[in-house]
Design brief:
Order of helices and strands: HHHHHHHHHHHHEHHHE
Strand order of the largest sheet: 1-2
Number of strands: 2
Low-confidence stretches: 1-6, 312-320
Largest sheet: 2 strands, antiparallel
Mean pLDDT: 87
């Protein structure tokens, strides 16, 4: 029993830290506002993510993805339901409407914690473990991507982000529209926006045979995430066990990150495209990878392009 308890304990360190971080945010929100809503929201989300991360850590390798999919469903379904119950718009436009109107609704709190300040601790954990779009995309059949399209197509997400800002500014400042954050129209906006996201993301997945094509090229949420996740304390790091250069982690990484390039250079995975899904950890036959704590700045995004040979010593192209 003693020989097994230590490894299990180590696997639960990160889940416990993440869970208590969310509970701490919830308690702080409750103490400052007097409302129980922050405890309910962040306590639930933190517990769901902690449970999923914990299962991922202790389950056998072939069953590890069940932990992440469980968390995606628990968090994604909860946030969608919360939007309808609270009659709020949780799309990025809902955040902008709320900020301009001075309304601190769920979208504002959600983005501040999960996508702006939270990633300083846990990076793009949202993208890998809590996104309601990924909750659906992970059910599609293209789980082994072929690499990024040649060229810097990621500029499309910056265009999407900019257009969202411009649209809200025009509606508010020119037409005096004030109902985009809460109320019936806000819910309608949320429904239509999500249906468009699902339609575009599923179409792209089948066209490019890549479940995460939308995340790589179109998703506007990745714009703020790529900025703050550079400072993330939690990143993929090395265990000290030698990599055998099999390339499995690169082949299976849903975001096409060239993981060995970082590890073999004595770094953690500094790419702001990493969603901490831990697929690389799961498929590593040598157990050379792990979640790790530390302080370093995200660096150049070393990404695999389509048609590029998968070896850790291969030249890197397609960096954004």
């Amino acid at each position: 029993m003693k020989t097994q308890s230590k490894p299990v304990f180590k696997e639960l360190i990160v889940p416990v830290i993440v869970m208590f971080a969310f509970w701490g945010i919830g308690i702080l929100g409750w103490s400052q506002s007097g409302y129980l809503q922050p405890i309910v929201m962040f306590g639930y989300i933190g517990t769901a993510i902690g449970a999923g991360l914990g299962l991922y850590g202790i389950l056998p390798k072939l069953k590890k993805p069940l932990g992440r999919r469980l968390t995606l469903f628990l968090v994604g379904a909860f946030l969608i339901a919360f939007t309808f119950v609270g009659r709020e718009n949780s799309q990025i436009e809902g955040l902008l409407f709320g900020l301009l109107a001075g309304i601190v609704q769920m979208a504002v709190i959600h983005y501040m914690i999960a996508k702006i300040f939270g990633p300083i601790l846990f990076g793009r954990l949202w993208c890998g473990w809590a996104c309601w779009t990924v909750m659906v995309l992970d059910l599609l059949p293209f789980k082994r991507p072929n690499g990024r399209l040649p060229g810097k197509w990621g500029w499309l997400r910056y265009l999407h982000f900019t257009l969202s800002i411009v649209l809200v500014l025009v509606l508010v400042l020119v037409f005096g529209f004030r109902d985009g954050a809460t109320g019936t129209f806000a819910v309608i906006w949320f429904i239509i926006g999500n249906l468009l996201y699902y339609a575009i993301s599923i179409t792209l997945a089948f066209a490019l045979k890549d479940n995460r094509a939308f995340c790589k090229y179109i998703c506007p949420v990745s714009v703020p995430l790529k900025i703050t996740s550079r400072f993330s304390l939690i990143k993929i790091g090395a265990t000290g066990k030698e990599c055998n250069d099999c390339g499995a982690c690169v082949k299976m990484c849903p975001m096409d990150v060239r993981i060995p390039e970082y590890i073999n250079n004595g770094q953690r995975v500094l790419s702001t495209e990493c969603s901490l899904c831990q697929t690389c950890i799961t498929v590593c036959a040598k157990d050379s990878l792990k979640l790790s704590f530390g302080f370093d700045l995200g660096g150049k995004d070393l990404l695999r392009e389509r048609g590029q040979m998968v070896t850790s010593s291969a030249p890197v192209v397609g960096a954004e």
